[in-house]
């Protein structure tokens, strides 16, 4: 039927189409959807009103226990019928009865369990159903019984045929494909909204009004399993808001959004993962129509909502659905794990608003698109060039730079192995929150954002150190099922080419080796995990040697929990003990941690919490732990913030702390043996620079009361300096490299020895662990590789720490993403505490973990 055009008479003007011209059977038959239908078990049918203009037939039936079932009640429509009305009733205590209808050509409407009846004609239809001619032939009421009673469900269907003169058609308006005059920019929009056409309570006009109130630029109406929303626009198509047609395809095995469908296009939902190729066929069809496929609320535990179709044909995951809940947190964790495997699937956040109490656009997506058009918005979302926010008050600017190249969310910034990258997150509109930066190594940097809502977070990484970086902003206030609330979430910036396979990030296991005083090395071995796990999966570690010859090992697990164990020689380590937080809670998580051992057998632990606050505590000689408490800040403040912290035990029982503060600069302080603290001071930088900044640092105490410091600068080079017993400092000296005048590294460690020398370890540009020593006279030995598990090959690692025992034995802890397993030997991999797995041999450079720079927000 040809299109009709309304005169250009102002608001709502535009092309109009008869609804019937876009009623499509689509790919249902080809996809096997018709085979999902079986005749309903009708026990009795009775007809009344024969010979009149209104004929009603009643069908009684019964459905067995189960949710994954579909049935139809077929009936014939003679010529002259102008309207069909259907009503149902069922035993509500036995379950839910979903409802819809098909005509001889295909889909005509669906309301699920939201309605018990409907009517449709050429001139009008109940929301959820498509107006259009009532043609003669075999029609079918479609039933979706969700039966919870073991005895089944009794139901009744009344079908009424209304005869009479023909009714006029009901044309609808075509939605514009773009908003005129809107070029490249950031646009806000909500992709998951429900109207009265399914189980929502807003009309489309009310949705548009709510979207404008929230400051959105685009929206997608995505009612459950129906195309009727798209053909309901009549004189109310907005000219200043991009409306995208969509459907929430609500299967019994997970829901997905088909976004960007042509108006009138319908996607079937009656299939499951066992129906091989059916979901894939529908997804391919949506893609062929220019649409986007999004797995909606994939980890929602409600029946039928949990996603079971895999992600091979999904463009994005809806990791944030409406008000923040625990299943959203789980979805983000699962998405992050996919990113760590190199799978580039975008994340989105949508409101899933149903009732007027549900705020449209909370959350929503902020998209960098070439234009405010359907094609440009969907293309940008598919590429992940977006971030999600709790409201229009929040804005992020997230970029990664190297040289003159810059990339944002969803973009690629390929780096050579040892090329530095600077990542910056600027936040506005997020008062009293915490911003964090994540890579596959975990949380790398964090900062508090004060009452102004404005803050900046900076981090420097290195080439092959990470595959990606992404950012989150959270508010530390309880929600309905969580202890915090998400404020914003970015898609990642990628640091490797999509054409190249990413490094294997699953094998990040804490390893241990030792070097005897004669210079020989033991075999590198993975440390067992907690609760019988084969290995301890870690993103951070620290070590301290005790006077009795044992070594305290700290491990930061993949969930950023802080754990402690004791290793003695080649014996099996003692059980892992989780370090409790300041309030005694077992859920304390950290960005970074270090440990130092004192002559009396005790240790002092320092740790940077997720909000950047530095805490300290004590492990007594008997193994007991005191509570953690904040490290004092500048005079008059109760806390000190940092992204990286290190501690050294001194011969007199005092401790020296070193850290990169919230301004990115390096600071130093002393904790006296009586518990007093000196003010934090800022040592000078390299050359004439007033301060020093970089991604990594380490400190150790020496027998003469001096301390030695090892740092990595923003140029990636390793430097050393001495703090004399009188508190004065030497200048920074750049260490000589293996074959070059300077030594570059991604991770470092330093430990003093009883003879006055210092042992140094570093992860070099090749991703392997190197070691050397500074002699008491100030001269250095050359760097040499630390042998790997087979005793010869260099050992690849991402982070490394070192300690020296009183007898001169050197102990090294390293996090390795790859290892060589000797023939006949076995080792653990993957899994954090309590998660065991097997390991296969692997080679090649491992990723290098670096810690970033943080610039405080106002009030932090």
From TrEMBL:
List all membrane-crossing ranges.
Answer: none
Give the matching Gene3D superfamilies: Fucose-specific lectin, Metal-dependent hydrolases
Annotated region (Disordered) at 818-860
**Entry-linked InterPro entries:** PHP_domain, Pol/histidinol_Pase-like, TAT_signal
Domain of life of the organism in this record? Bacteria
For this protein, the record's PANTHER family field holds:
EXONUCLEASE, POLYMERASE_HISTIDINOL PHOSPHATASE N-TERMINAL DOMAIN-CONTAINING PROTEIN
Which named protein is this?
CehA/McbA family metallohydrolase
């Amino acid at each position: 039927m040809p299109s009709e055009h309304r005169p250009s008479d102002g608001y709502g003007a535009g092309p109009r189409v008869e609804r019937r011209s876009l009623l499509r059977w689509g790919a249902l038959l080809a996809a096997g959807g018709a085979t999902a239908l079986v005749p309903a078990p009708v026990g009795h049918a009775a007809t009344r009103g024969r010979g009149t203009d209104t004929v009603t037939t009643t069908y009684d039936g019964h459905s067995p226990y189960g949710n994954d079932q579909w049935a139809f009640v077929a009936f014939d429509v003679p010529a002259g019928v102008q309207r069909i009305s259907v009503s149902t009733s069922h035993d509500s205590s036995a379950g839910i009865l979903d409802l819809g209808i098909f005509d001889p050509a295909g889909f005509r409407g669906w309301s699920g369990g939201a309605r018990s009846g409907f009517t449709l004609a050429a001139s009008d239809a109940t929301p959820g159903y498509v107006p259009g001619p009532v043609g003669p032939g075999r029609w079918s009421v479609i039933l979706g019984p969700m039966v919870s009673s073991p005895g089944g469900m009794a139901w009744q269907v009344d079908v009424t045929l209304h005869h009479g003169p023909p009714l006029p058609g009901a044309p609808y308006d075509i939605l514009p494909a773009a908003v005129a005059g809107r070029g490249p920019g950031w646009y806000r929009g909500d992709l998951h909204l429900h109207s009265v056409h399914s189980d929502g309570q807003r009309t489309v006009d009310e949705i548009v009004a709510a979207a404008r109130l929230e400051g959105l630029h685009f929206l997608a109406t995505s009612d459950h399993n129906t195309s009727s929303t798209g053909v309901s626009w009549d004189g109310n198509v907005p000219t200043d808001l991009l409306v995208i047609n969509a459907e929430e395809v609500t299967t019994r095995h997970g829901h997905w959004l088909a976004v960007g469908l042509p108006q009138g296009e319908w996607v079937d939902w009656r299939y499951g993962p066992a129906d091989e190729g059916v979901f894939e066929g529908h997804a391919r069809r949506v893609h062929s129509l220019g649409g986007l496929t999004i797995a909606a609320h994939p980890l929602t535990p409600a029946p039928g909502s949990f996603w079971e179709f895999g992600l091979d044909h999904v463009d994005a995951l809806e990791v944030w659905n409406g008000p923040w809940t625990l299943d959203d947190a789980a979805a983000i964790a699962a998405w992050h794990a996919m990113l760590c495997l190199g799978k580039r699937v975008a994340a989105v956040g949508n409101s899933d608003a149903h009732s007027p109490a549900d705020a449209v656009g909370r959350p929503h997506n902020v998209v960098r698109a070439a234009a405010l058009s359907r094609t440009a918005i969907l293309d940008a979302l598919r590429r992940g060039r977006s971030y999600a926010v709790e409201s229009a008050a929040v804005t992020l600017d997230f970029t990664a730079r190297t040289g003159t190249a810059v990339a944002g969310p969803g973009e690629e910034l390929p780096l050579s192995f040892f090329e530095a990258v600077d990542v910056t997150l600027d936040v506005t509109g997020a008062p009293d929150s915490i911003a964090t930066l994540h890579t596959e190594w975990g949380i790398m940097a964090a900062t508090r954002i004060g009452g102004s809502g404005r803050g900046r977070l900076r981090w420097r990484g290195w080439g092959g150190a990470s595959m990606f970086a992404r950012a989150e902003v959270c508010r530390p206030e309880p929600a309905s099922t969580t202890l915090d609330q998400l404020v914003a979430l970015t898609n990642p910036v990628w640091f490797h080419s999509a054409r190249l396979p990413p490094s294997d990030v699953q094998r990040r296991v804490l390893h241990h080796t030792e070097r005897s005083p004669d210079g020989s090395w033991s075999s590198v071995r993975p440390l067992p995990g907690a609760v019988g796990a084969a290995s301890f999966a870690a993103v951070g570690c620290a070590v301290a040697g005790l006077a009795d010859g044992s070594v305290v090992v700290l491990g930061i697990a993949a969930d950023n929990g802080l754990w402690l164990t004791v290793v003695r020689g080649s014996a099996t380590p003692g059980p892992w003990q989780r370090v409790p937080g300041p309030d005694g809670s077992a859920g304390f998580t950290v960005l970074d941690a270090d440990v130092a051992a004192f002559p009396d057998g005790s240790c002092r632990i320092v740790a940077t919490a997720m909000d950047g606050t530095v805490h300290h505590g004590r492990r007594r000689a008997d193994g007991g732990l005191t509570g953690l408490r904040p490290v004092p800040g500048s005079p008059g403040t109760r806390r000190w913030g940092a992204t990286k912290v290190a501690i050294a035990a001194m011969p007199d029982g005092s401790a020296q702390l070193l850290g990169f503060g919230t301004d990115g600069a390096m600071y130093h302080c002393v904790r006296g043996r009586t518990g007093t603290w000196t003010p934090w001071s800022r040592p000078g930088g390299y050359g004439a620079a007033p301060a020093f900044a970089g991604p990594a640092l380490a400190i150790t105490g020496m027998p003469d009361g001096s301390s030695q410091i090892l740092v990595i600068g923003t140029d990636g080079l390793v430097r050393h300096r001495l703090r004399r017993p009188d508190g004065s400092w030497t200048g920074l000296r750049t260490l000589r490299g293996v074959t070059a005048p300077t030594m570059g590294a991604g991770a470092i460690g330093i430990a003093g020895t009883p003879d006055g020398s210092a042992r140094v370890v570093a992860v070099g540009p090749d991703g392997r662990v190197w070691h050397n020593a500074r002699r008491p006279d100030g001269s250095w030995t050359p760097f040499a590789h630390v042998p790997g598990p087979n005793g010869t090959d260099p050992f690849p690692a991402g982070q490394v720490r070192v300690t020296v025992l009183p007898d001169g034995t050197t102990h090294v802890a390293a996090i390795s993403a790859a290892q060589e397993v000797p023939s006949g030997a076995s080792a653990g991999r993957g899994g954090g505490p309590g998660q065991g797995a097997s390991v296969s041999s692997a080679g090649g450079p491992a990723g290098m973990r670096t810690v970033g720079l943080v610039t405080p927000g106002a009030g932090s």
